[in-house]
Amino acid sequence: MNKKANPNTSAGNRRLLPMLLGIVVVLLIGVLVFVTTKGTASETAELNDLPNYTDVKGTIVVDGLKYEKQPHLGSENAKVKVIEFADFKCPACKKWTAAYLDTFIKDYVDTGKVQLYFMNYAFLDRDSYLAASAGEAIYKQSNEKFWEYMHKLYENQGDESKIWATRKFILNFVKKNIGGIDYTKFEQDLKNQTYMYDVKEDFKIAGSYGVNGTPKFMVDGILLPDSSYDGLTAAIEAGLAEAQQ
C-alpha cells in the first residue's frame, strides 16, 4: 500500500531550497570579496613600495657626465666615448638592444674603438626608477653582472602602460636570473632604496644635456639628434677620424 506524501513536508522542502541557495550565494560573494580585497591590498602595498624622485634626499649638482660612475664596456684607451641613455621600461630601448647592441659591441667595443657607457634616464613611471636602482645595486657589486641584468630584464620587459617592475618582480627576477652576486645585499639595497640618489642624479644630468626620451646616444659629449644606428656609427667614425689627425 503506497504512502501519500506529506504536503507539509514537501512545502517545507520547497522553502528550504531557496534558503540554502541563498546561503551558498552569500558565502561565494564573501569569498570573492575576501580574495579581491586581499589582492587589492597586496597591489596597493606594492605600489606604496615604489620610489619617487621627490623622496630622494640630497642636493644634486650637475657638473659633468661622471663617466666614472656609470656601467661600462670596452677599453679605457678607446678613442671615442659613447653613452646610451635608457629606461628599462622603454620598448624602444628593448628593440634597439635586441637589434643592434651585440653587433655594436662586436664592431666597436671589442675592437677597442669605443668605450660604451650606460646611463639611466628613468622617466616613464616609478617602477622605472626602481628597475634603475636595482641596476645600480648590481653594478656596485659587478660591472659585468649589470650588463647581464640589462639584457635579461629587457627580454622580460612588461607592458609599458602598466606597473610591472615592482619590488616583488625584481627580487624574483634577480634571484632566478642573475647569479654570482650577494643576493642578500642586493635585496637590502633594493628595499632601502640605497642607490635612488644615483638614479635621480643620472636623470638630472641627462636632462641638463638635452635628453628628453629614450634611447638616446651621446658621442664624445655631443647628444645625437636621433637614435638610429646609422647616425650613431657615423658620429663614431667621425670621432675616430678626428682622433687620428
From TrEMBL:
The chain crosses the membrane at residues 16-35. GO terms for molecular function: oxidoreductase activity. It holds the Pfam family Thioredoxin_4. InterPro entries: Thioredoxin-like_fold (IPR012336), Thioredoxin-like_sf (IPR036249), Thioredoxin_domain (IPR013766). Residues 41-241 form the Thioredoxin domain. Keywords: Disulfide bond, Membrane, Oxidoreductase, Redox-active center, Signal, Transmembrane, Transmembrane helix. The keyword Disulfide bond applies. Belongs to the thioredoxin family. DsbA subfamily. This is Disulfide bond formation protein DsbB. It comes from Paenibacillus graminis.
